[in-house]
TrEMBL record:
InterPro entries: 6-hairpin_glycosidase_sf, 6hp_glycosidase-like_sf, GH15-like, Trehalase-like_N
Protein name: Glycoside hydrolase family 15 protein
GO MF annotation terms: hydrolase activity, hydrolyzing O-glycosyl compounds
Pfam families noted in UniProt: Glyco_hydro_15, TREH_N
All residue ranges annotated as the GH15-like domain in the record: 226-590
Length: 610
């Protein structure tokens, strides 16, 4: 009997195929996989419970003398094929893990290679559909070269050359791998009512997958500092893009906690408009205009329709109904409950999304991702609606659940929406009520400076009339709301340094206020916000401090170059959903800013930065 306990978040590696992703532990266990899409129910959910909720262990058999002495891992050829090398007292084996590119059906392949000596291997497969709830009916394939597991509409088929047998509703094999041996395991997802698909040639799939990722990253044009980690972040973003639509998930996981053992656990397998501008810019920073265009097209399709129905997030194909519920049978990562599926924040009012959407489409127009007039009527409709609601309170960019307030960053984002639209009208001669928009832009600016600034603190604050801070205020000089040398901006950055930095100098989003947030508990430092402070330092000309903070942030990356949402300074661990697109987007943008040695207000040529 194999007992699986979820590893530290940073001990997982990511593999993907443009439809979904899997998390592979350094112990050889795949503990998370949703099939056939990012947002589908998981068939391996041990990450949020235990081994009986589904996992796939393929590693040296410790019960037969295969205890690893060392474990090292890396991505082969700088792509997305994960290689984990286990050295034991009797030899060395490697496990190659990847999701096959170009396969007719979603396919996960694991190849065990003998590198030296002879090593006993354990294959322990526990398939559990519906987030670990449903135990499938398992039968042998007609050719006796694998098994088929069916539950409801889902079927997984495992094909391999070694004998399989059942042990207490687990599929098991034990075998020896010697130097030169290659033993492939091919797991394919398909509809339960369909015919069995043809077997996939593992070696051919490995070659095709490695070639795909090699070709893709080979097109990267980024030549600045920290090129290696920037390329890894670009690869991570590529793996988080749902290829059929171009939408990018915030993370491939749900309910990895912001506080270990706490209840701040959210489903991030959806597409946030908040990521729009950063996504466009980060991908274009690497020269990937095709992906940027696909994301822009997804964005425009997602927000199409009645302007008063714009949401802060959508499904990967633009779905709007993201009802939130709890999987009560899962114990949660390290006891962090509840485990949530869906995200009720989709129904919130967050005024900042208007600014982010308009800014993203402005960037697309400026960089010629689309025709100048493409989507303009849609944007005018959004702005006309925003003109009627910008004074309303909202839930803010951090999606608080304690009720609506007049969040300062939300108002600044409203200003951003009108500012970028005005720039497009003036530059391209687009039809719009220009003078009305200019008056609105000035009105919003005056309101923020009057209501959102606290003279006693010499700082902008989280919401009008409050005294707390918000790391989102670091974006003020970046979006061009005020210049970096404005005393109010300098005061805000200084206040954030005083109040929001943890003991390692990383930035918290805000100080916990359970009344405002509507949820108990604490959280770690927010990695993206810490990169925003890097950018703010550059804007102030504090280059030495900017480089120092950036390097400290890079040290948080896992050995595979991956980042979660947050960092817990007390435990020294990554926390939150993983890997987090927002963290990697911010890394790329900060690296670009540091390489340029200056910050360019978003919306200025040649390549804007947020």
């Amino acid at each position: 009997m194999v007992t699986v306990t979820p590893l530290k978040i940073e001990d997982y590696g990511l593999i993907g195929d443009g439809r979904s992703c899997a998390l592979v532990g350094r112990n050889g266990s795949i503990d998370w996989l949703c099939w056939p899409r990012f947002d589908s129910p998981a068939c391996f959910a041990a990450l949020l419970g235990d081994g009986e909720n589904g996992h796939w262990q393929l590693a040296p058999d410790e019960e037969r003398g295969g205890t690893p002495v060392t474990v090292t891992r890396s991505y082969r050829n700088h792509g997305m094929v994960l290689e984990t090398v286990f050295e034991t007292h009797t030899g060395v084996v490697a496990v190659l893990d990847f999701m096959a590119i170009g396969a007719a059906e979603p396919t996960l392949i694991r190849i065990v290679e003998g590198r030296r000596g002879a090593v006993p291997i354990l294959n322990w497969l526990v398939l559990r559909f519906d987030y670990g709830l449903s135990v499938p009916w398992v039968t042998r394939l007609p050719d006796n070269m694998g098994i088929s597991a069916i539950a409801g509409p889902s079927r997984c088929v495992l094909r391999c050359p070694v004998a399989l047998h059942g042990e207490d509703r687990h599929t098991v094999s034990r075998f020896i791998v010697s130097e030169g041996d290659q033993v492939p395991f091919v797991l394919t997802y398909m509809d339960s009512h369909g015919a069995l698909s043809q077997p996939v040639d593992a070696r051919a799939a490995l070659h095709r997958t490695e070639q795909f990722w090699s070709d893709w990253i080979g097109r990267c044009t980024y030549q600045g500092e920290h090129a290696s980690i920037v390329r890894r972040s670009l690869l991570t973003l590529k793996a988080l893009i749902y290829q059929p639509t171009g939408g990018i998930v915030a993370a491939p996981t749900t309910s990895l906690p912001e506080e270990l053992g706490g209840g701040r656990n959210w489903d991030y397998r959806y597409c946030w408009l908040r990521d729009a501008s950063l996504t466009l810019i980060a991908i274009m920073a690497g020269g990937y205009f095709e992906e940027a265009m696909a994301w822009r097209d997804w964005l425009q399709a997602a927000v199409a329709g009645s302007p008063d129905q714009v949401q802060i997030m959508y499904g990967i194909a633009g779905e709007r109904l993201l009802n939130e519920w709890e999987a009560g049978w899962l114990a949660g990562y390290e006891g962090s409950k509840p485990v949530r599926v869906g995200n009720a924040a989709a129904g919130q009012l967050q005024l900042d999304v208007y600014g982010e959407a308009i800014a993203a489409l402005h960037v697309a127009r400026q960089t010629r991702l689309c025709a100048i007039t493409d989507g303009w009527r849609l944007q005018v409709g959004l702005l006309q609606h925003l003109a009627t609601i910008w004074k309303e309170p909202d839930e803010g960019m951090w999606e608080v659940r304690g009720g609506r307030r007049q969040f300062t960053v939300s108002k600044i984002s409203c200003w951003l929406a009108f500012d970028r639209a005005i720039r497009d009208v003036e530059k391209y001669g687009l039809e719009a009520p220009l003078e009305e928009w200019k008056a609105l832009r000035q009105d919003i600016h005056d309101t923020v400076c009057r209501e959102g600034f606290n003279a006693d603190k010499n700082s902008f604050v989280q919401y009008f009339g409050g005294t707390g801070l918000d790391a989102g205020l670091l974006l003020i000089p970046v979006v061009g709301f005020l210049p970096a040398d404005d005393p109010r901006v300098s005061g805000t950055i200084a206040a954030i340094e005083r109040e929001l930095l943890d003991e390692h100098g990383f930035v918290r989003r805000y100080l916990p206020d359970h009344v405002i947030e509507g949820v108990a508990g604490d959280e770690g430092a927010f990695i993206a916000c810490s990169f925003w402070l890097v950018n703010a330092y550059v804007a102030q000309g504090r280059m030495e401090e900017a480089h120092a903070l950036f390097n400290r942030l890079l040290a948080l990356c896992s050995d595979l170059g991956l980042l979660a949402e947050e960092y817990d300074a007390i435990t020294g661990r990554q926390v939150g959903n993983f890997p987090q697109a927002f963290s990697h987007l911010s890394l790329i943008n900060s690296a670009s800013i540091l390489s340029a040695g200056r910050i360019t207000t978003m919306g200025a040529a040649p390549l804007p930065v947020l």
